[in-house]
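Worked example 3. Consider a protein that binds adenosine-5'-diphosphate.
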Amino acid sequence: MERTILVVEDSRTQAERLQLLLDVAGYRVDVASNGREGLERARLSRPDLIISDVVMPEMDGYDFCRALKSTEELRRIPFVLLTQRGAPQDVIRGFQCGADNFITKPFEDDLLLERLQRIFAHLELRQGGRLDVEITLGSGGQQIVINADKQQMIELLFSTLDDLVRLNGQLAESQRVIEDYARTLEAQVQERTERLLQTEKIATMGLLLAGVAHELNNPLSVVKGHADLLQLAVPEGPLAVRARKIGQAAERCTRIVRNFLSLARQYPPERKATRLNQLVHEAVELLGYQLRTAGLEVRLDLAQDLPPLWADPHQLNQVLVNLIANAQHAMREHPAPKRLTMTTREDRARGQVVLEVADTGPGIAAEVQAKIFEPFFSTKEPGEGTGLGLSICRGIVESHDGTLTVRSEPGRGAVFTVDLPAGTVWEPAVPEPATEPAPQAGARAILVVDDEEDVRDLLADLLSIDGHRVDGAQNGLAALDALRERSYDVIISDARMPGLDGAGLYRRLQAEHPELTRRFIMMTGDAMSAPTREFIESARLVSLAKPFALDEMRRVIRQVLGEG
Ligand code: ADP
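Given these inputs, the predicted complex is written out as structure tokens:
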């Protein structure tokens, strides 16, 4: 069946092009040059389809379409509007005027013919003829009445709806993902900022503390020392309990100060050949009294012939003290048995030296275990813990190329394991201490050099328990004066003093009393500032960090006297 197409176009070339194209494709073609003419031609020739330009003189495409669609006998003729590409408002306006379909200019010939074929195919499928489809668009409830094929409209609507739903779904999904991501990011940023702020705050506090540590450690030494003395004088009863509590509080202050200091400094390890077993003995001795009074049984299972570690003994001591203090705290309110087991062994296959600190406390739940090495994580009551201990311990162990791990089951205690690479350096100078304290040696003459009178008096009190004779000097110069008067078996000197400090005194002794340099003990009040540390290490001095326990002081005295 031959179809007639009415082409309404004011441009002659465009009209001729369309005419030729449609002719060749087998359509009969009628042409008009504007809307008014088009309307007349439509009445006369009753075409099967109209293709109309938009912009035309006299009557444009929109008016033409509207006039056609409002004429009863013409309105069923499909109206195709030629709109400009990229002008969606033309399509909307065309729809409003009742256009059935659109072809955008410029078009490819093939595409135009294909489109026409589709339109005609659709017309053939159409059964119920045309229907007015009312669509309410937009939130304003603007109503547009479109004369269109029902099927086509429904298809159009559904595909549009599909697109919208899909798009919406995707948008919603993307939005959710983006929001989630933003929230996570925000939380992370906040957490990091808080940590950073906290770390910075701590670092600043640490620096301040480093500055006042000297002053802080002196009164702490005094408190602790007198608590020790009180306990010795009154071994039992309520006074003894009080003395013990004072001593323990001072211990805790000491640990806190040291932790803050190491956080503030973060110095790399200053390594030397270090005996792990000796460190264990020292730590147990340092905390011994506290552990005994807490009713803890301490078991040492130390492998003989351990290779030495190439390590910073002060830092490793800090690790041990922290692990032991944590174990003690964990078992505090836990029923017996309260047992702390410290094991050392060599893992030859892996070239490691292994230390285990095991307790019989309540253990650590899995979700807590995941966090205990984070700085500031603590399950302890406010004021009881800073949450820094384990993170500092891990930091120290890792800076020694080792690992610090935990294994624990709730109800079955906790085991902290330190793995450290075995050192290759052998220094026979480091003596293994006897497991049992050596019997007390005879009374000695000891010169205590410190600028604080309280500290001098305390040391005099402590040392006189063991029958030593003690003199005091307020700085290095006063010490040299005293040495002119008489001789001493041991000199215990503070590192920092006005006038002549500890290092200055030591150098003068090298020149004037070389026999005394082997019996010189350096007391440090600031948990070892770098210069003091260097000096102590290079001169291979025996040192005593304030505040110290009575036992520790006895040990270093035995050590310099060669009685250890
Ligand atoms: P702090 O002791 O100040 O809380 P730490 O970093 O030393 O900080 O310890 C973090 C947390 O790890 C503790 O609060 C505690 O919950 C847990 N923890 C550490 N050691 C033990 C242990 N031996 N037994 C049970 N829990 C422990």
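Take a moment to read the result before moving on. Confidence is low (pLDDT under 50) at residues 127-147, 426-439. The longest helix spans residues 150-233.
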